[in-house]
Amino acid sequence: MVVFALLIINKAGGLVYNRTFAPGLQKLDSNDYLILAGTFHGIHAISRTISPAPRAPHPPGTRPPPTTGIETMDAGRFRLTCFQTPTGVKFLLFTSPEQPNAEAIIRRCYEMYGEMVMKNPFYSLEMPVRVEKFDRVLGGYLVRPG
User: Fold this and answer.
1) What's the pLDDT score for residue 12?
2) In this structure, is residue 64 part of a structural domain?
3) How high is the mean pLDDT of the chain?
4) Which residues pair with 69 in a beta bridge?
5) CB-CB contact of 82 with 72 (8 Å)
6) Where do the H-state alpha helices sit in the chain?
7) Residue 15 lies in a domain
8) Which domain holds residue 89?
9) Is 54:69 a contact under the CB 8 Å cutoff?
10) Which distant-in-sequence residues (6+ apart) come within 8 Å of 75 by Cβ?
């Protein structure tokens, strides 16, 4: 598994968690990560609004399916996968382009976040994530050998 980094962006576009996992990557300073999170949040919001409407009409009395915005972005040396939770929190996973099952990996990260961060009585919503158990378990999952 080659996972480069994970970023978590709150529903307002603020960076609440970032961690790199692959050694030897070019380091970004904290300001660059904040700019990246805010920029992606804005582009994601715009892409949701310009997304084409579904062709089939939805049944009366029901909501139309939500538009998703950017889900993946491929570059020459990395792939960015975005998962937006029902509450608007975005998980951004940077992997190698060849990495299979990035969607399953990012959903597992979300499950860990729910179990270890959201259920932590000392965590305040929308604030930076500083939960040692989350760091430890996430690192063990994303830095597996092989």
Assistant:
1) 92
2) no
3) 87
4) none
5) yes
6) 30-50, 102-113, 132-142
7) yes
8) 3-46+69-142
9) no
10) 97
